[in-house]
Write a structure and sequence with these properties.
Largest sheet: 6 strands, mixed
Number of strands: 6
Amino acid sequence: MHKLISTGSPFEETAGYSRAVVSGDWCFVSGTTGYDYKTMTMPDDVAEQARNALATIDRALTEAGFERGHVVRARYVVTEMAHADTVFPVLGEFFAGIRPAATMTVSDLIKPEMKVEIDVTAFKG
């Protein structure tokens, strides 16, 4: 089984990617930033951006037939080291009891308003 999931984000169409791809028992969720896709606005607060990204990821997982508890791998990118301390509690709350393998890096993102990007891999075998 191969299924493509879209959030309707204009970035998906322009850049030619899916928010998530399901392949068998695996779900790969693309890097997700903190846009509120209903209003296409980006909050300035990095914690709020992380919450928005995680909510988008949750919706993609649900549409794909997966649950948050199926996440086995998470990758986080923040644009400044100082953002890590702000984002960690948000991630800890979201992944409480799940604790996937995870990596955080510091890097620029493609738009200056983006401060955090998150991607996850889920497995339900």
